[in-house]
Amino acid sequence: MVFDMQKNAPTTRGEAVFTAVRGDILAGRLTPGARMPFADLCARYGASTGVLREALSRLAEQGLVLVEPQQGYRVMPLSAEDLADLTAARVEIEGLVLRQAVIQGDLGWESQVIARHHALTRTPQVDATDPARFSDDWTRAHAQFHATVLEGCTNRRLRAIANGLRDSAELYRQWSRPLGHDEDRDIAGEHRALMQAVLARDADAAVAVLTAHIEHTSVVLLDRAAQAEHPG
Q1: Burial (Cβ within 10 Å: 0-12, 13-18, ≥19) of residue 55
Q2: Total domain count for the chain?
Q3: pLDDT tens profile 204-231
Q4: Which of 75, 109, 125 is the last residue of a domain?
Q5: Residues 6+ positions from 139 with CB-CB distance below 8 Å
Q6: Terminal C-alpha separation, the chain
Q7: Residue 41 CB-density burial (10 A; 0-12 exposed, 13-18 middle, 19+ buried)
Q8: In CATH, what number is assigned to the domain containing residue 118?
Q9: Which of 105, 114, 176, 219 could form a disulfide with 180 if both were Cys (CB 3.0 to 4.6 A apart)?
Q10: Checking phi first, is residue 165 left (phi over 0); if not, alpha (psi -120 to 50) or beta?
């Protein structure tokens, strides 16, 4: 097969620029709420306006970039109010779904929880080339573990709401590493404690562990968000 290198070069370059900008957002190098002037970004990434516009449009679809009419693009802001509301909603809904999962889940579900936890523990947490970021593989394994924990609940509507709230929190979760500066946190230990409570069929303990897990991620960002909204 013969490739038209001129035809495919822009696509390849566009993917590289998209990946680079996305990585800088998730690592906090492009700070929450920061303006994204085309001239500055074109120079920073060595990209044309067209390639950059395509990358920013894709990032806006992923909720990483905000498009403001007649003002251009900026990194999605870090909002203390939104994070507090989202955290409260997640604690209530995910706690309810988890409690039902512990009560209703069968042996097959237990096996899946163990398997997903094993995969999570075997996946490097940080990006080998960018230690300021969670690795994409770990992010996927993390999402799969938490989704599986909730799958024991037989109410599909409740599970969908809970997973939707988790998806909404993904950017905050990504920012908790570069912006939260909580290097002493034992995330692996939190996941292990959640799995153990689930397997012990201790609904109260499982909900308590999950609540602390959710709230810890938020606490490390709330102070940063407050500073961003009220500098000085």
Answers
A1: buried
A2: 2
A3: 999 999 999 999 888 878 776 666 555 5
A4: 75
A5: 170, 174
A6: 60
A7: buried
A8: 1.20.120.530
A9: 176
A10: alpha
Is-contact 222 84, C-beta < 8 A? yes
Distances from the Cα of 75 to the Cα of 6, 56, 101, angstroms:
31, 10, 37
SS3 state of residue 72: strand
pLDDT in tens, 83-135: 899 999 999 999 999 999 999 999 999 999 999 999 999 999 998 888 888 89
Contact 74, 150 (CB under 8 A): no
- Name the residue type at position 202: D
Total-model pTM: 0.77
| Separation between Cα atoms, residue 202 and residue 129, nearest integer Å | 40
- Whether 26 and 97 share a structural domain: no
